[in-house]
Design brief:
Layout (H helix, E strand, L loop, with lengths): L1 H5 L18 H4 L7 H4 L2
Length: about 40
Amino acid sequence: MRLLLGHPNVDLVAVTSRNLVGKSLAEVFPRFANDKKAAAL
């Protein structure tokens, strides 16, 4: 995901999971807690 978020030709619009329903991306991947693009997902 880190590579996709930083790639200029990729527009990542959603991240899904069956096991982690209701959790934010930052809860699952703390490294993205301060990433503006990741916060928008």
